Amino acid sequence: MLRLISCQNATMLLEQQADRPASESMPASLWLHLRYCPYCSRYAKQTMLIAEWARASAARQTSTGPALSDAAKARMRERLAAG
Fold it and tell me: What does pTM read for this prediction?
């Protein structure tokens, strides 16, 4: 028999789910909880959206952007060391 989980457990599972590939299925207990709890359902949508934005932002940052010259890196290291 499937047990209804608490909101605290649901949010923990949602956070873990956000880090997983979208192809993985969600636990049945979480699915059931989201059908009955409008608050956790909203939290799930927000969490997944934020995770998508974070992944997209990380992909953009690694593929573009100017690189610092070796001289600029050396100056930064000197200033941090003098700090």
Answer: 0.63
